[in-house]
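Raw record, unedited: Outer-membrane lipoprotein LolB
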Amino acid sequence: MSTVQPALIWLLLLALAGCAGMPAPAPESGKASWHAHREQLQQLSHWTASGKIALRTAEQAESASLLWQQIGEASHLRLSGPMGISATTIDSDGSLLEVRQGDDYSRWDLDDPALGDEHSWDLPVRSLHHWLKGVPAPGSPVQSLLLDAAGQLPEQLQQLGWTIDYQQFASFGGYLLPTRLQVSRGETRARILLREWGDFSAP
């Protein structure tokens, strides 16, 4: 799994290893329109998003095209780079992770401590699929939340020591979803561009 984009792979592995099923805390300063927006997206459990992700740390910079498919607790991700570099797929059913890159295959139990020990990068943990939708990760306190002038969409979220800056939203199938965001802490910065959202359904 060391042939291409190891930092990006671990970014997404750790995002998938997050807690689920706990209610998200309500931001103290949130307005009614934010609460309605957040509740709508919390119910959105089936979706697909595609675009690009670029990760920069103190040691390296990497980028890839990204396809993320979420079906309930199950996630399927595909990372692909330029010039024919082997694509990487990451699958999780909520308890196991499977990673395929070319002829390489790895599998982890999400409760295995070695999953966290394997990486040496300062990366977002356990929350990215929630942040992608523009809502806080459930079960973790929100340090800060800044809303737009209408009191509906987040401009900046601080959670788990990370800062998520939402730079652009667009409407897809009746949902207002991020199309450009940045996730950062210290010298680590992930820029995510999501051109398309679709395949929506809710329980």
